[in-house]
Structure formats: structure tokens, C-alpha cells
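User: C-alpha cells for this one?
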Amino acid sequence: PSEPQGHTEQTASGGRSQRDGQTADAGLDEQPFDGPAVSEQFRDQLQATLSGTHTLERELGGGGMSRVFVAEELRLKRKVVVKVLSPELAQGISVERFEREIQTVAALQQANIVGVLSAGDMNGLPFYTMPFVEGESLRARLARGPLAVTEVIGILRDVSKALAYAHQRGVVHRDIKPDNVLISGGTAVVTDFGIAKAISAARTASGGATLTQIGTSIGTPAYMAPEQAAGDPAVDHRADIYSLGAMAYELLAGQAVFAGRTPQRMLAAHMGETPVPIGELRGDVPAPLADLVMQCLAKDADARPQGAGEIARVLETITSGSGMQALPPVLLGGRGMFGKALAIYAVAFVAVAILAKAAIVGIGLPDWVFPGALIVMALGLPVVLWTGYVHRVAHRAATATPTFTPGGTPSLVQGTMATMALKAAPRMSWYRTARGGMYAFSAFVLVIGVFMTLRALGIGPAGSLLAAGKLSKAEPILLTDFRTTNVDSTLGRVVSDAVRAGLTGSSAFTLVSPATVVAALERMQQPPTARVDSALARQIAVREGVKAIVDGDVTGVPGGYIVSIRLVRADSGVELASFRETGDGPRGLIDAADRLARALRSKAGESLRAVNATPPLSQVTTGSLEALKKYSEANRANGVSDRHSIELAREAVAIDSTFASGRMLLGVTLSNFGGPQSAIDSAQTNAFRYRDRLPARERERVSIAYYGWGPGRDRTKAIAGLEAWMARGDSDVAAVNLGEQLREMRQFARAESLNVLSLRVNPRNGIAFGNLIELQLDQGKVKEAAATLASYQLSMPEYKVFGYRRGLLRFARGEYDAVHALADSLRQSPDKENRRFGTRFDASLALLGGRLREMDALIASPD
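Assistant:
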């Protein structure tokens, strides 16, 4: 035969087979070959014997009865297998007789038989050569998992043909088992034909009696016919029929006929015990095949099929006749497999859904992973259902009794779908269905990996702006007042503030505060309430050194809104990213702003885990659009119209009492503009109560205000929170507030350094400038305070509180007359805050002069 693919060697007959899990006592004294030194000597002797014809390459694993080598035949440049009988087995064997016996085996030339090429001896040890077969043994194939019924039928058919050919020429194998069957190119070939008989016939002991004649069995217990196990000298080819049945039983059932027993008990069972019917162990075995296997295992040789050719013909009938008697791979696992498959699918569906959701929250995968995973899993359901349908149709066709045409042709009436199922059955199996599902899901995981890689590298549409170098980490951005179409014009600012709230706490952006925008408008001689459209925003951005702006549109449509935002470069107007969302009704508008803010954060390059962990905007702010409107107006009025800002903030929290951001704004506004302490404490307490509705950073700031200046009054917690805030790099605000806590502890020097640090981050921080002057005066650094004030006036000439700082400086110098003149000037100012400063100075002068009633009157005055 042509050279197949692969070779796995086992004992031909009578040896110990470790691969089939049994220890086969063949009646021959088996001893392992000697140690490494002797083994090397053995190899050298064999090479010397083969010198000039063969070159040894390597040794294969053999059994107790032989050593097996791979060699190259020099003349024909082909690989062969050299098998040398063990010294123990060779004792009493006539080399000449062994070679004469093996000549019969060498004459076997059939496609399913691995023939013998040559024979010889090495110092009295017989050896023979066979073609090298590249492939795997049936034992190895069986170890990889169950075989389909059609595959088993094909193997049995090939082995039957080999046996039929050999039996016609008087050669009995005597050791048919999976170890002696090799699979090559989908074809089964049998090795070691007739070797057991040649060894037996070549024995010279007991007056030339063969092993069989003296009652010793040759074979492997798991596959040995009863007469062979009993040492019957009249063993004939029907012993091979029994061994073939035992091997078929194992291939179908996945276990030997009498598995789990000692060799002695196994031999006894072969002689007197009836095996469990194969149909009870595997329900998808066609009845004709099950009957054939059990017939081969009959104890009486006369009850078995009398020839291997007869078996081959029956197998041909099973595979090609009677419709679908040979069941396809889809039926592996039995009739209950459909229910099991559905249960496994349901569990897998739930597990994938949970895993996808956990991955989005835990490691920051994009939001589309969850619906994508569900879609991939849902696509598998039709495949499972179709496989189950094919299973049912194939099983029905295989087990139904066919009708016959008048001419005797079997006929099975099938519908269109059933016919399609029958055609698909040979190519379908539950294993392939499961494997296809795993391939599909693996492809989906690969898509996720590619997306995350492109995002990290800043490549293509999935790439982030940070990774692509188009945006710097914590880049300052300025939000415009969004344009409006077909809706109330105030919604532009409301949605802009909603997007701002969604971006608050983002590590990708630093938001330009409304106070900074108002100050810039004043320097540009624009009213503080001016609408900041795209053009004006770009001018402010250039003046303030801001590199990017976020512009947007709100368009009313029947039943809802369309909201779009764009991130553009302030200098060139080049668009970096754009997104669009729709919302149904007022709540839908807030949700649309939330999705837009998340999309912008994700595109910038912020961790998707952080983006996904952000609470919904309706929770962070409010689910009420009307409350959000009031909050937006109050936020913009803060610092422009104090009383109006407080009123609007109160209206916002009246609409939504759980509006934590509104409560926080109310508390800050009341604190900044002299509101009653009880009202300030109430606002801060309620903000603290609902702090869990805020993003992490806002929640932290509420806690700091509550403990630092609110009713919580726990300076240790306030300082710890401020230090954690500073550790993230937000020293502009955190440093100022931490300095105020330290000033109350009279740690003036450290508080001064913190305000200096704040001014390095934001040189236009007026509060830090004012605090720095006061802290220098607290330490008696009058000259330093004067220099700071001069620098302050030069860099921020529009700031309103220079009069107050000048008054403090004159107090420190003892220039009381100058203080009195400054106080009179301030009290006549149209600005309420300056009038209040003038009143404070006059009250302080009255206190210094001992005029307590005058001081009380000044303190009680409206200004």
C-alpha cells in the first residue's frame, strides 16, 4: 500500500499494552529490556547487522515482546519500521522457521494491511521490517474523544476487508485491537498480521509443539475470544471475528466489553458472561450495527458471522441502504442531547450577559459590548434549534421501518424541511455547533480587542484624541451657550450646563468656570450676561489660553429634541469630534445631554471604566428640566446678581428637593453673600444628605464644605479631603480652601504657601490674591503685602475688592485717617459689596475709638 501518514506502534500479540489501560498476560515471560548502557549496545548491534542496507534513526515505544526502531532503507530512500523480538520471547524460537512462517505474512498485499518487507536475525534474535506509517493509532484517536457512528462503521469496514483477505490465505491475526489499527488519510490499516502465529509456529520447545498446542493463549485479554482465552489449539479465523466485535464495542461505547476488571477476571468473563447490549450504552447506534456487534461477541464460534467478508457486506448495507440507518455525527450524545443543548445555551446566554456587563463596569469596555454580546448569543439560538431539528429527523429516519416500492426499493417519505435536514445531517454535530458558537464569540472578543487597541493607539474612528496627540490630558475647555431652533431659547444654556455637569470630574478635561468667563467678558467690555456663542467663545478662549471649545445645538422636533455637540480647536476652528443624540420629552433631553457628555469623555481618551462608573446625569443633577433651568440661571447669576442667584437656587431645590447640586449652589451662594448661617447650614446639610447622587469629586467637595465650613464642623476630615483633592492636581481651588482651614489653625506660613501655589496654577485667581495679602498681614509682612497688592492691581485691574485690600493695608500701618477717608468713599459706591466694605471699616474705627453704640448701628445697617 502507499505510505499513510503517522505511525504508532504497539505489541502485535501477546505483549503488554499500557495504552489500553490493561495488563495483558499472554503466557509469555515478559521482562523489560536492560538499562541505558545495554540499550545503546543493543542499538549498535542492530545497526551493525543492518549496515549497508538501513540506517537507524530513532526508537519508537514498543511493547514487552519487541523493540521498535525507525530506519531509512538506503537503496530506496524510504522509512521503514524495524521490530526486534525480545531476548526472552526469542528463546526456543528457530530463526529459520520464523522466517519461513513470516514468508506467508509477507505475501499479504492488500490496501488495508501493513505488510512485511523483510526478515532477519541479530545474533539469534529475529527481526522483521514493515513500512513506516505516518498517522495515529486507533487507540490514540479513541483517547481524543468519542467517534461518530459513521466513522466507526468506516473503520470496521476497512478492518473487515483486511481480515477477509488474510483469512482467505490462511492467516489469522490473533490480536485485533485499537493499538494494531492505524488511521491514515481517513483509511484504517491493520499492522502485525500473522506475527503471533509465526512466533508460535517457530517455537522448538516440547518437541516442536507450538504455544497454542501446549495450551497457552496469545492475544490481549480485553479482546480475546473465549476459545483463544482457553488455549484451544483449534483456534481459527473466527477468533479474529470476536476480537473485531470487542473492538467495535469499545469504539461505540467508549469502554471495553468487560472494563474495570483484572486480566484473569476479564478472560473468565469472555468465556462465560454476556456483555451489556451496546444499545443500552449508546442509544444512537443503529439497530443493525448493534445486532452485528453483539453477534460477533457470541461465545460459540458457530453463532458468530462465519467470515469477515460477510461483516463487510453488512456494514456496506448499513452505511448505504435503508435510508439513514448509519446515524450522522449530530446524534452523538443520544436523544436527550437537544434538551441538554438548550439548557447549556441558556446558561451560557446568562453567563455571557453577566460577564459583558461586569466587563463594562469593571474594566471599562465600551457600552456596545453588552448588546453586541447578546446579539452574538441570540444568533446561536437558530443554529441550536436547527441542529435539534436535524437530530430529530435523522433519528426518526434511522429508526423508522421503511416502506418499499413495487420494485423492492426502500422509500422514506420526507417533507422539504426534513429532506434538507437529512442532507445536512452528515455535516452537522452538536460538537460542531458548540465549536461554531465558540468561534463566533471568539471573533466578537477579537473585535473588542481590536477596538480597544485602536483606541489606545489613537488610530482611526475608534482612536482617542489623547492617544492621537490632538488633546492634552486635563485640557481646559470652554462651553458655549448652545444654539436653539424651534425651542425656548433658554434651553441652549440649560443643555450646555447639563453637558458641563456631565463633564464635571472628568480626567480628560478641565472646565473653564463661569466666573472666569464673566471676568473675561468684563475685560472685553461685554455684559456679564452676554450669550457666549461660538464666535465669542473662541475670542475668550484665545484671551484665556484655552485650546478647545465645546459648541452645540438644540433642535425641537415633534415629540422631542435633537441635540448635537462639537469639540473644536479654538485657534483654527478645526472639528476634533462631534456627536448627536435624540431625546423624547424633558427627561429625554437630560438623558441626551448625559449620553453626549459620556461620548465626548470616551472620545477624548478617558478610561471607559471611569465613564461607565459615572452616575446618570438625571441623578447627578435632576430629572426635572424645570429645576435644571432654575439651577442654570442661578449658576450664571452667581456673582452678577447675588439676591437673584439665591432666589433661583431656592426655586430649583423647591422643585426637586433631592437636587444635591442645587443645594450645594444655594449653600455656596448664601455663604459668599452674607446669608443667614441657619440657611447656609440647612443648604449644606441637605447637600451632604444627597451627596451619593453626585459624581465622586463633587461628592468629595460637598463633604469638605460640610465638615470645613458647614454644620459638620470636623476640621480633620475637611483637611484630609482637601489634601486628597490636591493630590489629584486640582490645586487651584483645593489649595485656597486648605489654606483657609490652616489659617483658622493660625498656621499662617503654610497657608500663605498654598495660596502662592494656587496662583502658579491660575495667575488670575482673585481669591488667592486677596487671601495672600491677608495672610501676609497676619504675619506682620506689611511690605510684602503692599507688593502683592501692587502686583494684584496690575494683573487684574478690573477686580472689585482693591478698596477693601487697601483698607486692610492702611489698618496694618496705623493710617486710620486714610482708612476713614477710604471708608467714606466706599460707602458712596454704587456697588453693594464696596458699600459693605466701607461700613465694615467705619465699624472697626468706631470700635478702636470706643464708640460701641456707633459700631452696633453700623453693623445693623442694611449695607
